[in-house]
Amino acid sequence: MLGLTSPLITTGSGAKMGKTASGAVWLSGKRLSAYDYWQYWRNTEDGDVGRFLRMFTDLPLAEISRLEQLKGAEINEAKKILATETTRLCHGDSAAREAADTAAKAFTGTAAEGLPTMMLGPGERMSVIDAVVQLGMAASKSEARRLIEQGGVKLNERTVPSATATISAPDFDERGTVRLAVGKKRHGLVKRG
């Protein structure tokens, strides 16, 4: 009988990476979309970028050495390369490009296809809490409530004022879309059905 082991993979802050860790990353597109997979790697801690480029991509070592020397705001470019390369290996070239494009659009405020999206029927109302959970931006209603109470949820770029807030007809833009954001990095859309 033969066995294979490897050391536990941790981040620079000592947090473990794995399915039991908060915010687990899944390889299956059924468990985690290519966009969310891309975002996971994009949010890597600065100090881990070089090590993760070596471990999880097939970039040439000279290129990795160049990227890990970037500091300040420039490190974000290395994180985008890490996210795109890991997504390409797991989900393919097309999914990696689409995830990178979707993220770029989400952060410039334009409507971005490819974000987690749900439909709301004409005249229907839905609590912001339920929308945040259904879009996968919180694991439970209690987590969504806590995020709202801490001012961490935005509806169309405005902070959601209370946990009883709802999404209704006046919230939709001319394209029939409502934008939800949890923090700066998780975005989703509600569309009128």
What is the CA–CA distance across the termini? Answer: 56 Å
> The biggest beta sheet, please?
5 strands, mixed
Principal-axis shape equals: elongated
By secondary-structure content and strand pairing, the structural class works out as alpha+beta
Cα radius of gyration in angstroms? 18 Å
Number of helices: 7
Biggest sheet, strands in spatial order?
Answer: 1-7-6-3-4
How confident overall, as mean pLDDT? 84
Order of helices and strands: HHHHHEEHHEEEEE
Strand content range? 5-15%
Low-pLDDT ranges: none
**Helical fraction:** 25-40%
Task: Report the strand count.
Answer: 7
In short:
With 193 residues, the protein is an alpha+beta fold.
What does this molecule look like?
This protein has helices at 34-42, 49-56, 61-68, 75-91, 93-108, 128-134, 141-149, and strands at 117-120, 126-127, 153-155, 158-159, 166-167, 177-182, 186-192. It has 193 residues and is of the alpha+beta class. Strand 6 (177-182) and strand 7 form a beta hairpin. Helix 1 (34-42) runs antiparallel to helix 4.
What keyword list fits this structure?
alpha+beta; 193 residues; 7 strands; five-stranded mixed β-sheet; single chain
Provide the fold topology.
Elements: H1 34-42, H2 49-56, H3 61-68, H4 75-91, H5 93-108, E1 117-120, E2 126-127, H6 128-134, H7 141-149, E3 153-155, E4 158-159, E5 166-167, E6 177-182, E7 186-192
Parallel strand pairs: 1-7
Antiparallel strand pairs: 2-5, 3-4, 3-6, 6-7
